[in-house]
Amino acid sequence: MEVKNNAQGSFDEVFIEEGFYVLKFQNESGDKLQYSREINKRFIQFHFCLKGSGNFLFNQGNYTLNVTEENSLLLYNTQLDLPLHLELAANSSIVSVVMTLRKFHSLFTNEANYIPFLSTDNKEKKYYAQEPFSPSISVILSQIINYNLHPSIKSLYVKGKIYELIALYFNKSPNADIEQCPYLADEENVKKIKKAKEIILANMAEPPTLSELASEIGLSLKRLKEGFKQIYGDSVYSFLFDHKMDYAKNLLETGQYNVNEIGLKVGYSTASHFIAAFKKKYNTTPKKYLLALAGN
User: Fold this and answer.
1) Residue 280 confidence (pLDDT) above 80
2) What percent of the chain has pLDDT over 90?
């Protein structure tokens, strides 16, 4: 089953095991993007909106469920297929977990009565639930989207995080909001780390020092470093470097700027420094990259 989108956007599907998938949708553009995927009635769907918002369309668009930032949507219907038709808003990201009812039930073999929609009364019915999720879930979702690991362990890493995500999702105890990381012990610190990311991206040509950034968001330098790594899977400047190179590549593809202009936009005072950085990221120079594009 393939996901199709009708515009440039970031999508990744991670196969966990038979009957168990993770879908990652990211839209960093200024326009809405459309995605579709066949999902039959054997599957339960969990959708988590980490940033922005998305609309899930049903019955040729006649029925819509909206999911907003830091909210989740749970769907299943034993009588009817629920294919995924997602309209993802600009600057939004959603992580979806899709698994068969059989696989899901196996996760809670001894706890099935704890899950409302697995009760005898609901097993032949449709079910959906919308609710906000905790800061701890927000951290896990960020890690799923932003991990920086060798491809050979990608599936194992995501699998571990998804099990953690599902466990926290169904943990309704009063302590469900306690963060895994001691540096992210409350929702306010999570917001500060997210603010740090916004600041460096908005000032990528002349980013603040780590000390300046820590002071601006009101965290210690140590908490900034540890918290950023915990949420985004990378150091502050390594994360920024990847963003700058992706931004530069997108500018190259427009054909509206030369190498010098693009280098300046992302913070390199000389073309040679920008070319070296681009080659480090993509193993090719900007010029060769453009030639390769022209040849396709």
Assistant:
1) yes
2) 32
